[in-house]
Amino acid sequence: MKDNNTEAHIEDTEKGALQHADVIASFSPSEQKKLIRRIDARLVITLGCLYCVSLLDRTNLGAASVAGMQGDLNMNASNNGYSITSLLFFITYTIFQIPATVIIRKVGPRLFIASIVLVWGAVMISFGFVPNWQTMAGLRIILGALEAGMYPGSVYLLSTWYPRYELQKRNATFYLIGSTASGFGGILAYGLMQMDGIAGKAGWEWIFIIEGLLTCVLGIGSYIFLVDFPEQSPKSWKFLNESEASFVIARIENDRADASVEPFSIGKYLANGKDSKVWAYAALYMLTTTNSYSIAYFLPIILQKSMHFSVAKAQCLVAPPYVAAAIVMYVQAVYSDKWRLRGPVVAGNALMGLLGLGLLGYLEHPAPRYFGVFLATIAANANCPALVSWQSNNIRGQWKRAFTSATLIGGGSIGGIIGTTVFRAQDAPNYRPGLLCAILANALVVIIVGAMTLKFNRANKRVASGGKPIEGHIGFKYTY
């Protein structure tokens, strides 16, 4: 009976594949490219712009710090006000990840994402009016809860629109729009600092006010341009007609057969946590963001205090490493999709990070240390879309995909907690404990990637020899 059921399932799968192929073939290659470009413009570009302000708003403490915020708010080594304010964001950011991915599926991404962006923009404006660092710390808690839905929601939304081996280019584009633009946040902050004294506000206060206004504008605009899930798209401002939506869904079904949404069950949703690879990906992202958040929050301070650059140079020298990271990130994404390769790219980036942090932490001359900044920034930022794509490639099912997106980004927020606490004020100007922690994180990435690659290779060989299907779907194989 078991064999008959398996044969019937294979037959149904083959029939479904033929039907999906017919739908895909009904669009000429030029029509397909035109439609996909239209999806990219509405989805990837819009989400990238929102991710840009998300990164700006969560990491502009570093720019505000060198603009005088710590002195004005009495943040010092005795109270660790800066580290506490940085850290508290990530507590609520972590807690609200999983609920956010359930809500976005129920409410729809367009309404949900636009709403939280608008509200957190208002919170960011209020940062420019705080009387003390304790008030700012409380607002950071609220900001973390609001931003919790943005990144995992975006990752999940992108994964529902694209086949597995077209995804990393989109994740990289989404991420590089955000990271490159936020890399210029130091230059923007330096410009806003020149408003010092206008309306009796300090320059660092204007950083929060103007960037908060920008966030509110983009939040309103995103409701117009953002799109919902593929099966909802004919109803979403008539973005796609029925045949175009069927084409998108057919591509997903042909690739991994999980375009349909199964009924929600809290028990089944949480049971996805029994899969060890879910937590392995979360651990990898945690280790990666330990590096990326450390760089985002403390690079301007290190450039100023440890490498003795002026405030203006410290703000502006943040940008070039992020530009380099964007270029490397996208080139890697193109070839990773082409070669269907993920793990070795992640491990290679981590090794690059080891070298960069070694140069930054243990040399004296500013030139090689700044080159180390390039390597460390490239490694940490390039691995973010690579890991998001690798995770999406090896997960099936809408709710499991939502759960894994939440745990992955939740792991990233824990990395943010680590990154903001290991760089302590009393360790200035060299911050050796923090740099050692970041070096250890990269080494662990290499080890975990090696273990996962061996696990996936064994599973693929088992399937090839007629063993138990992967992710409950015959013909599905892991990407490694």
From TrEMBL:
InterPro entries: MFS, MFS_dom, MFS_trans_sf. GO terms for molecular function: transmembrane transporter activity. Its main location: membrane. Residues 43-461 form the Major facilitator superfamily (MFS) profile domain. It is a multi-pass membrane protein. The chain crosses the membrane at residues 43-61, 81-104, 111-129, 141-162, 174-192, 204-226, 278-299, 311-331, 343-363, 369-390, 402-425, 431-454. It comes from the Eukaryota. It is found in: Membrane. One of its GO terms (cellular component) is membrane. Keywords: Membrane, Transmembrane, Transmembrane helix, Transport. This is Major facilitator superfamily (MFS) profile domain-containing protein. The lineage of its organism: Eukaryota, Fungi, Dikarya, Ascomycota, Pezizomycotina.
